[in-house]
Design brief:
It is a single chain. This protein is an alpha/beta fold. It folds into two domains: 14-194, Rossmann fold; 203-286, N-(1-d-carboxylethyl)-l-norvaline Dehydrogenase, domain 2, CATH 1.10.1040.10. The protein is 47% helix and 12% strand. The chain contains twelve helices and eight strands. The chain has an eight-stranded mixed β-sheet, sandwiched between helices. Bound molecules: 3-hydroxybutanoyl-coenzyme A. The site of 3-hydroxybutanoyl-coenzyme A has 18 residues, from helix 2, helix 8 and helix 10.
Length: 301
């Protein structure tokens, strides 16, 4: 092959097979969205248990969508047929035209994954990270193809939320940007382009500002969490109030994002919130643990 001094990023027509790394909340639904859009998709995870859970959840979700009359049974079946689950990264990456990494938000883990992808993914493949805190520039060098690396940041729940933030770093090629934006559109999303890496991109910066204000109002006893959430819904038209949203995203994730942002900016205004950190320390992580700012009954009770 020719040395890759010039971008060889494929056009959208060159994208047929997608690999999603990580089968957590984000990875599993991103994989399902890709399969629904007609792509042969593999969701890869080192944990077979997590893959089994993802498969069960996605199957149940497709069944519910069919039951609501939102999707034809045959389409759901075909989409699930295009979706496979695997533990072997090398084998999964070997045939991928586009990789979306949605693994644990840890730089050392991501560096390892991207270094490996650089070796085993086809030369033309675009390697994207769903990270909201780690700019792709942090892992791009390890791949040997920094021009084909960018952030492709989805929102929770990824099957529903329309936004995808595409973030280019200094070396990302125009072809990579265009193909990634178009892929997001083909997944039924409305992508936005961020021209320079900045902690939190757009959405998490906006969300963080609202959350910070909500936490301050509640901590000062000015209004209850319930009333703050009600106000966000009824005065601002937000689908969820800030406390409900933090519980849905996961307080550990909220705390992690704040820590990562603070580490990067050093700005006192970005300091992680003590109420959130205290709940995390008590194991109260939000909806997924049954308790966060609010209590959530276990499913089926
Ligand atoms: N997974 C998949 N689909 C889901 C879902 C989930 N967890 N929860 C709800 N849905 C689907 C429902 O099945 C339903 O589908 P339908 O239209 O086909 O029937 C649809 O979403 C609407 O759901 P509901 O009617 O049950 O409830 P709502 O109308 O309240 O919608 C919501 C639920 C879409 C989650 C809405 O409340 C919402 O938009 N909330 C805000 C979400 C948000 O802000 N996300 C961004 C978080 S930040 C982030 O992800 C960034 C990261 O870096 C932290």
């Amino acid at each position: 092959p020719l040395p890759s001094t010039e971008s060889t990023a494929p056009s959208i027509e060159g994208i047929r097979t997608i690999l999603v790394i990580g089968s957590g909340t984000m990875g599993s639904q991103i994989g399902m969205a890709a399969a629904l859009a007609g792509y042969e998709t593999t969701v890869q995870d080192i944990s077979a248990e997590s893959l089994a859970k993802a498969r069960a959840e996605l199957t149940a979700r497709m069944e519910a969508t069919v039951a609501k009359g939102r999707l034809a049974a045959a389409e759901a079946e075909a989409a699930l047929g295009r979706l496979s689950f695997a533990t072997d990264l090398d084998a999964s990456a070997a045939g991928a035209d586009f990789v979306i990494e949605a693994a644990t938000e840890r730089l050392d883990i991501k560096e390892q994954i991207f270094a490996r992808l650089g070796q085993v993914a086809p030369e033309h493949a675009i390697l994207a990270t769903n990270s909201s805190t780690l700019g792709a520039s942090k892992v791009a060098a390890a791949t040997g193809r920094p021009d084909r690396v960018c952030n492709m940041h989805f929102f929770n729940p990824a099957l529903v939320m329309k936004c995808v933030e595409v973030v280019r770093h200094r070396a990302t090629s125009q072809a990579t940007v265009e193909t990634t934006l178009e892929l997001a559109r083909r997944l039924g999303k409305q992508p936005v382009l961020i021209n320079r890496e900045v902690p939190g991109f757009i959405a998490n910066r906006l969300m963080g500002a609202i959350q910070k204000e909500a936490l301050a109002l509640a901590a000062a006893g000015i209004a209850s969490r319930e009333d703050i959430d009600t106000t966000a819904r009824t005065a601002l038209g937000h689908p969820m109030g800030p406390f409900e949203l933090m519980d849905m995203v996961g307080l550990d994730v909220i705390d992690f994002i704040a820590q990562a942002t603070y580490a990067e900016t050093g700005d006192a205004a970005d300091r992680p919130d003590a109420q959130v950190a205290a709940l995390v320390a008590e194991g109260k992580l939000g909806r997924k643990s049954g308790q966060g700012f609010y209590a959530y009954p276990a499913p089926g009770t």
